[in-house]
Amino acid sequence: MSNHTPSQTAHRLAAHGKNRAPENREISHVRESRVKQRIERSTMNHRYVKGSAVAIGACTWALAASLTAPAVVFAAPTNLAQGKPVTVSRDASGKNTTTKLTDDDKTKGSRWSAEQNVPQWAIIDLEESKTFDTFEITWESATEHAVDFQIFVSDSNKEDGWGEAKRAVTGNKDAVSTIKLEKPVTGRYVKLLVTKVSKYPNVSACDFTIMNSADDDGSQQTQDPAANVALKMTGVSDSKEADTLGPNNLFDGKVDKRESRWSSASASESA
């Protein structure tokens, strides 16, 4: 994370335009103005932060190196699934194992992979009966995700004890699936059943978050201004140059690794 203030960052970005040819300075000036405006107005209370580039150049990569969210944030509901044990239909060998589904790390480097075609399932044991109404599933990527899946809740974890699905999703196209039930449910076990995937014949998910929205009382927490609250968050972009250069690299905390960056597709590729 950069130690520069917003104003210093904007001036550093502007410096990239000083040595350009005269005909390019006007574009650099516009870019500097837009970048400075976005940085200095970033201290707001919102969940999502959107950035855009008005021209392609060095300052685009400077912004892409590290993106930090506001210093004052709303308290988020507790992730009831964090650190809880998981049972799956099939576990991958190597690093993409079961525990990655509840480690609260939403990056592609930490994920559960069944390494086998559908149907596949995962059961989270909350270790005691809990009340909740919101699920957030972070799939591997915008191209590798579940299309059809169901969520079940039970107190018994028996084959005949699941009943009907609390939510059945069909035709999902998102890298992150957020499901909010109309009414809270109570149970100890939560089952995710995937019956169709988008591309590669394999179920792969980075994180499964379970929350009770009633825990969100709207209170504010004072955030350490030196802390990057965007660290390990999930990013979405309109394009990427390659699978390894996706938007999640913006939030991995690595500011000195060229291979860990978001790079958009060229104009011809994204058109």
UniProtKB/TrEMBL annotation:
<feature type="domain" description="F5/8 type C">
    <location>
        <begin position="69"/>
        <end position="213"/>
    </location>
</feature>
<feature type="compositionally biased region" description="Low complexity">
    <location>
        <begin position="262"/>
        <end position="271"/>
    </location>
</feature>
<dbReference type="InterPro" id="IPR008979">
    <property type="entry name" value="Galactose-bd-like_sf"/>
</dbReference>
<feature type="region of interest" description="Disordered">
    <location>
        <begin position="1"/>
        <end position="30"/>
    </location>
</feature>
<protein>
    <recommendedName>
        <fullName>F5/8 type C domain-containing protein</fullName>
    </recommendedName>
</protein>
<feature type="compositionally biased region" description="Basic and acidic residues">
    <location>
        <begin position="20"/>
        <end position="30"/>
    </location>
</feature>
<feature type="region of interest" description="Disordered">
    <location>
        <begin position="215"/>
        <end position="271"/>
    </location>
</feature>
<dbReference type="InterPro" id="IPR000421">
    <property type="entry name" value="FA58C"/>
</dbReference>
<feature type="compositionally biased region" description="Polar residues">
    <location>
        <begin position="1"/>
        <end position="10"/>
    </location>
</feature>
<feature type="region of interest" description="Disordered">
    <location>
        <begin position="86"/>
        <end position="112"/>
    </location>
</feature>
<dbReference type="Pfam" id="PF00754">
    <property type="entry name" value="F5_F8_type_C"/>
</dbReference>
